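WARN retry 2 of 3 for item q-0093 after timeout on previous attempt; input resubmitted unchanged.
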Amino acid sequence: MSENTVDVLTPKRHAADWMILSIACIAQFMVVLDVSIVNVALPRMGQDLHFTYSSAQWVINAYVLTFAGFLLLGGRMADYFGRRHVYLIGMGIFTLASIGAGVAHSGTQMIIVRAIQGLGGAILSPATLTIIVTTFHGPRLPKAIGAWSAVAGAGGAVGALLGGILTGLVSWRWIFFINVPFGIIAGTAALLYLQEMRNKDAAAKLDVTGSVLVTGGLASVIYAVVNTTTHKWTSSFTLEWLLGGLILLSMFCFWEAKVASHPLVPFRIFRSRALSTANGIMVLVGGVFFAMWYFLTYFFQSVLGFGPVKAGVAFVPTAVAIILGAQISSRLLAKTGVKPLLQVGATLAALGFFWLSLIQHNSSFFAHVLLPSVVTAFAMGLLFAPLAMAATFGVDRADAGLASGLLNTARQVGGSLALAILATVATDRTTSLLTHVSRAAALTSGYQRAFEISAVIAIIALGVTFFLPRNTGRAAKA
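OK item q-0093 returned
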């Protein structure tokens, strides 16, 4: 353990590895699940809460904005104030906001509590990976990261499954209420069994100015991007918000490098080529995988005519493929290192997305969608464990929360940007064809274009993997 960290054993009892791993994985699963579980429920939710089509998207966007904007702050809080305290705070906010979303009776109320839920997720999610990298060592670390990556990756697919089942058989409100028992169980387990660990030299030295600048900058950029469905990329609205966000992010960089005495993001951490490269790859692959759930959800319901339950069940094979891929990569990490696994995963992702781009409006699920979606999901499982390993490889344990926050931020920002860009491309393609072909054919053509671009992005990610140090991750076997 680094000399810059200190254990505060509260309570003073040893917890089994499976208990600590479960505490981390349940929380991460809840956070990722909540990004995708809402998609299938949006039509029913919109009817009950009187959302328009455009305003209904803010049920997702409100969560995404606060989640992405506060992730770096959440990661640093885990280092400064202790992983146990921050985990409990994040879990408490997330669970209470879930109750608020479940009982919401107006669109405004729903959007507000979803933003609060995103804040809770931003505090909670970095703490989960911090718990992993500060608890497990040697050959246990890649296995633990593999399990964490499996539940994080599968959360998107399982979210679509649960969203469909709960919306179709019970009520859309239960997509939020289902978080409550898990939150109580995980919070109680953390209170009883999770030992505290924090950076002893960083007591309450949180960089508030840096937090405001980076949160405002990220939120402004993402706000501009997610609104491109209603405002063109070249519109003054989009350009003004983008420019404002870039100015705030530039001010953040200057503040961190030249002014802050205790910077939120000390730039020395980017001297790790493994961390910098892993975050670059995560922006790319995390983005296209995030978008994949969205497009497949709408393809199943709007083109193939699936109901919510059937659409949810259609994601079961992809969830299994993600878990399988993550388990395989975690077992190979110590032998092969990170780089070969990332290259294989990125190659399979490119092939899977290209295969998905061949779908037609008269395609069948079993003949044309099942296999390419499973290949793509398996690639996702292969990628996330080595990316988590690379992002935390060689990082001082005092900065584990920061490294975790950076990786989660890369994934969320990549997802927001990719979804907005690909959705705009798909919508433009669909609109241009609506007067010439059927609605189903026009929609499918838009999805095809989105998957084609996703394949290209996966190829770019493959190219970025060559910048990784050769032996990244192999030290885990020592």
